[in-house]
Amino acid sequence: MAEKTVGFSLWANECSLATLESSLSINGVGDVSESPRLQANAAVRKFLSGRDWSTQTPTRRRIVAGFLQLSATRGFESVSLRTLAREVGMQAPSIYSSFPGGKDEIVAESLRWFTHAFAYDLLAGAEKATSAEEYWAALVQGHLAQQLQRPEPNIWDLLIATDKVARFLKDEVRAEADLWTSLHQDMYIAAADEMGLKLSASTVQQILTLLDGVGRWADRSGGDQELSLLTDRAVALTLSILEINAEIRSAV
Asked: Most buried residue, 72, 110, 189, 228, by CB count within 10 Å?
Protein backbone atom coordinates (compact mmCIF):
# COMPACT_ATOMS: atom_id res chain seq x y z
CA MET A 1 0.00 0.00 0.00
CA ALA A 2 1.32 3.43 -0.90
CA GLU A 3 2.14 5.69 2.01
CA LYS A 4 -0.47 8.38 2.64
CA THR A 5 0.53 11.99 2.28
CA VAL A 6 -0.90 14.13 5.03
CA GLY A 7 0.26 17.41 3.62
CA PHE A 8 2.99 18.90 5.79
CA SER A 9 6.55 19.48 4.64
CA LEU A 10 8.19 18.22 7.81
CA TRP A 11 8.87 14.65 6.72
CA ALA A 12 9.48 15.62 3.12
CA ASN A 13 12.26 17.94 4.30
CA GLU A 14 13.45 15.43 6.92
CA CYS A 15 12.96 18.09 9.56
CA SER A 16 16.16 19.81 8.45
CA LEU A 17 16.56 23.36 9.75
CA ALA A 18 19.59 24.00 7.56
CA THR A 19 17.52 25.99 5.04
CA LEU A 20 16.10 28.19 7.76
CA GLU A 21 19.49 28.74 9.34
CA SER A 22 21.14 29.57 6.01
CA SER A 23 18.45 32.14 5.30
CA LEU A 24 19.56 34.02 8.38
CA SER A 25 23.12 34.10 7.09
CA ILE A 26 21.98 35.22 3.65
CA ASN A 27 19.98 38.07 5.16
CA GLY A 28 22.96 39.13 7.21
CA VAL A 29 21.29 38.60 10.56
CA GLY A 30 23.66 38.94 13.45
CA ASP A 31 22.88 39.02 17.14
CA VAL A 32 19.30 37.81 17.65
CA SER A 33 19.06 39.98 20.77
CA GLU A 34 18.76 42.98 18.45
CA SER A 35 15.29 42.00 17.28
CA PRO A 36 12.29 40.57 19.16
CA ARG A 37 11.27 38.77 15.95
CA LEU A 38 14.62 37.05 15.66
CA GLN A 39 14.53 36.11 19.32
CA ALA A 40 11.13 34.52 18.78
CA ASN A 41 12.38 32.70 15.68
CA ALA A 42 15.43 31.42 17.53
CA ALA A 43 13.22 30.03 20.29
CA VAL A 44 11.07 28.18 17.76
CA ARG A 45 14.16 26.87 15.99
CA LYS A 46 15.48 25.53 19.30
CA PHE A 47 12.11 23.88 19.94
CA LEU A 48 12.23 22.18 16.53
CA SER A 49 15.79 21.00 17.00
CA GLY A 50 14.67 18.84 19.91
CA ARG A 51 13.18 16.22 17.60
CA ASP A 52 14.58 14.67 14.41
CA TRP A 53 11.63 13.35 12.43
CA SER A 54 13.84 11.98 9.67
CA THR A 55 14.49 8.95 11.90
CA GLN A 56 10.85 7.89 11.72
CA THR A 57 10.32 4.63 9.86
CA PRO A 58 7.94 4.58 6.86
CA THR A 59 5.63 2.30 8.82
CA ARG A 60 5.36 4.71 11.75
CA ARG A 61 4.72 7.55 9.32
CA ARG A 62 1.97 5.58 7.62
CA ILE A 63 0.32 4.75 10.94
CA VAL A 64 0.36 8.38 12.10
CA ALA A 65 -0.99 9.52 8.72
CA GLY A 66 -3.74 6.91 8.89
CA PHE A 67 -4.68 7.90 12.43
CA LEU A 68 -4.96 11.56 11.46
CA GLN A 69 -7.02 10.72 8.40
CA LEU A 70 -9.48 8.60 10.38
CA SER A 71 -9.63 11.10 13.24
CA ALA A 72 -10.47 13.87 10.79
CA THR A 73 -13.38 11.91 9.32
CA ARG A 74 -14.67 9.92 12.32
CA GLY A 75 -13.32 11.58 15.44
CA PHE A 76 -10.24 10.32 17.26
CA GLU A 77 -12.20 8.62 20.05
CA SER A 78 -13.82 6.27 17.54
CA VAL A 79 -10.51 5.19 16.01
CA SER A 80 -9.61 1.70 17.21
CA LEU A 81 -6.45 -0.22 16.39
CA ARG A 82 -8.56 -2.54 14.25
CA THR A 83 -9.96 0.30 12.11
CA LEU A 84 -6.54 1.94 11.97
CA ALA A 85 -4.92 -1.31 10.84
CA ARG A 86 -7.50 -1.67 8.11
CA GLU A 87 -6.89 1.93 7.00
CA VAL A 88 -3.12 1.43 6.63
CA GLY A 89 -3.26 -2.13 5.27
CA MET A 90 -1.80 -3.88 8.31
CA GLN A 91 -2.84 -6.43 10.90
CA ALA A 92 -3.79 -4.86 14.22
CA PRO A 93 -1.10 -6.75 16.22
CA SER A 94 1.54 -5.46 13.78
CA ILE A 95 0.86 -1.90 14.89
CA TYR A 96 2.31 -2.74 18.29
CA SER A 97 5.65 -3.46 16.62
CA SER A 98 5.90 0.22 15.74
CA PHE A 99 3.91 1.60 18.69
CA PRO A 100 4.23 -0.72 21.72
CA GLY A 101 2.09 1.72 23.72
CA GLY A 102 -0.84 1.23 21.39
CA LYS A 103 -3.34 3.98 20.70
CA ASP A 104 -2.13 6.26 23.49
CA GLU A 105 1.35 6.33 21.98
CA ILE A 106 -0.06 6.92 18.49
CA VAL A 107 -2.16 9.82 19.77
CA ALA A 108 0.87 11.36 21.48
CA GLU A 109 3.05 10.92 18.39
CA SER A 110 0.38 12.42 16.13
CA LEU A 111 0.03 15.42 18.44
CA ARG A 112 3.78 15.94 18.49
CA TRP A 113 4.04 15.55 14.74
CA PHE A 114 1.37 18.15 14.05
CA THR A 115 2.89 20.53 16.62
CA HIS A 116 6.31 20.34 14.98
CA ALA A 117 4.89 20.46 11.46
CA PHE A 118 2.90 23.61 12.22
CA ALA A 119 5.91 25.21 13.90
CA TYR A 120 8.18 24.29 10.99
CA ASP A 121 5.86 25.68 8.32
CA LEU A 122 5.11 28.83 10.31
CA LEU A 123 8.78 29.52 10.92
CA ALA A 124 9.63 28.90 7.26
CA GLY A 125 7.18 31.64 6.26
CA ALA A 126 8.14 34.02 9.06
CA GLU A 127 11.86 33.84 8.22
CA LYS A 128 11.16 35.48 4.85
CA ALA A 129 9.72 38.63 6.44
CA THR A 130 11.87 41.76 6.31
CA SER A 131 9.69 43.90 8.60
CA ALA A 132 7.41 43.47 11.58
CA GLU A 133 4.37 44.07 9.38
CA GLU A 134 5.44 41.34 6.93
CA TYR A 135 6.17 39.05 9.86
CA TRP A 136 2.68 39.56 11.28
CA ALA A 137 1.15 38.89 7.86
CA ALA A 138 3.22 35.71 7.49
CA LEU A 139 1.98 34.43 10.85
CA VAL A 140 -1.63 35.12 9.89
CA GLN A 141 -1.25 33.54 6.45
CA GLY A 142 0.42 30.44 7.91
CA HIS A 143 -2.35 30.06 10.46
CA LEU A 144 -5.09 30.43 7.85
CA ALA A 145 -3.43 27.92 5.53
CA GLN A 146 -3.37 25.36 8.33
CA GLN A 147 -6.99 25.93 9.28
CA LEU A 148 -8.44 25.99 5.78
CA GLN A 149 -6.38 23.46 3.88
CA ARG A 150 -5.85 20.69 6.43
CA PRO A 151 -8.05 18.91 8.97
CA GLU A 152 -5.33 18.32 11.57
CA PRO A 153 -5.70 21.63 13.48
CA ASN A 154 -9.20 20.65 14.61
CA ILE A 155 -7.86 17.32 15.84
CA TRP A 156 -5.07 19.09 17.73
CA ASP A 157 -7.57 21.44 19.39
CA LEU A 158 -9.82 18.52 20.32
CA LEU A 159 -6.97 16.48 21.80
CA ILE A 160 -5.77 19.41 23.89
CA ALA A 161 -9.29 20.23 25.07
CA THR A 162 -9.97 16.59 25.95
CA ASP A 163 -6.71 16.35 27.87
CA LYS A 164 -7.67 19.34 30.00
CA VAL A 165 -10.55 17.24 31.31
CA ALA A 166 -9.34 13.64 31.10
CA ARG A 167 -5.57 14.26 31.54
CA PHE A 168 -4.75 11.30 29.29
CA LEU A 169 -1.55 12.70 27.77
CA LYS A 170 1.82 12.06 29.37
CA ASP A 171 3.32 15.01 31.19
CA GLU A 172 6.12 15.48 28.64
CA VAL A 173 3.68 15.51 25.72
CA ARG A 174 1.46 18.05 27.45
CA ALA A 175 4.48 20.18 28.33
CA GLU A 176 5.64 20.14 24.72
CA ALA A 177 2.22 21.26 23.47
CA ASP A 178 2.09 24.00 26.13
CA LEU A 179 5.58 25.17 25.15
CA TRP A 180 4.60 25.48 21.49
CA THR A 181 1.46 27.42 22.43
CA SER A 182 3.63 29.87 24.36
CA LEU A 183 6.20 30.17 21.55
CA HIS A 184 3.44 30.73 18.99
CA GLN A 185 2.01 33.56 21.08
CA ASP A 186 5.49 35.03 21.54
CA MET A 187 5.87 35.36 17.76
CA TYR A 188 2.83 37.66 17.64
CA ILE A 189 4.01 39.56 20.71
CA ALA A 190 7.41 40.10 19.08
CA ALA A 191 5.85 41.51 15.91
CA ALA A 192 3.59 43.83 17.90
CA ASP A 193 6.55 44.99 19.99
CA GLU A 194 8.48 45.99 16.86
CA MET A 195 5.40 47.86 15.61
CA GLY A 196 5.41 49.84 18.85
CA LEU A 197 2.37 48.10 20.36
CA LYS A 198 2.09 45.96 23.47
CA LEU A 199 0.20 42.72 22.99
CA SER A 200 -1.35 41.26 26.13
CA ALA A 201 -2.04 37.55 26.66
CA SER A 202 -5.80 38.16 26.46
CA THR A 203 -5.45 40.02 23.14
CA VAL A 204 -3.33 37.18 21.73
CA GLN A 205 -6.14 34.80 22.63
CA GLN A 206 -8.69 37.01 20.88
CA ILE A 207 -6.57 37.02 17.72
CA LEU A 208 -5.88 33.28 17.74
CA THR A 209 -9.56 32.53 18.40
CA LEU A 210 -10.46 34.63 15.36
CA LEU A 211 -7.97 32.75 13.18
CA ASP A 212 -8.92 29.33 14.56
CA GLY A 213 -12.52 30.01 13.57
CA VAL A 214 -11.81 31.19 10.03
CA GLY A 215 -13.74 28.27 8.59
CA ARG A 216 -16.90 29.64 10.19
CA TRP A 217 -16.62 33.27 9.04
CA ALA A 218 -14.80 33.05 5.72
CA ASP A 219 -16.42 32.27 2.39
CA ARG A 220 -13.84 29.77 1.21
CA SER A 221 -14.01 27.68 -1.96
CA GLY A 222 -10.31 27.31 -2.68
CA GLY A 223 -7.51 28.83 -4.70
CA ASP A 224 -4.31 30.68 -3.88
CA GLN A 225 -5.72 34.04 -4.97
CA GLU A 226 -8.68 33.66 -2.63
CA LEU A 227 -6.35 32.68 0.21
CA SER A 228 -4.32 35.82 -0.47
CA LEU A 229 -7.42 38.03 -0.33
CA LEU A 230 -8.58 36.29 2.82
CA THR A 231 -5.17 36.76 4.37
CA ASP A 232 -5.32 40.50 3.67
CA ARG A 233 -8.71 40.65 5.37
CA ALA A 234 -7.53 38.62 8.36
CA VAL A 235 -4.39 40.74 8.73
CA ALA A 236 -6.55 43.89 8.80
CA LEU A 237 -8.93 42.35 11.34
CA THR A 238 -6.17 41.13 13.65
CA LEU A 239 -4.33 44.46 13.51
CA SER A 240 -7.59 46.22 14.34
CA ILE A 241 -7.96 44.02 17.42
CA LEU A 242 -4.37 44.80 18.37
CA GLU A 243 -4.77 48.56 17.93
CA ILE A 244 -8.15 48.75 19.67
CA ASN A 245 -6.85 46.90 22.72
CA ALA A 246 -3.74 49.09 22.78
CA GLU A 247 -5.93 52.21 22.76
CA ILE A 248 -8.12 50.83 25.55
CA ARG A 249 -5.09 50.12 27.74
CA SER A 250 -3.61 53.57 27.11
CA ALA A 251 -6.93 55.21 27.99
CA VAL A 252 -7.22 53.37 31.32
From this structure: 110
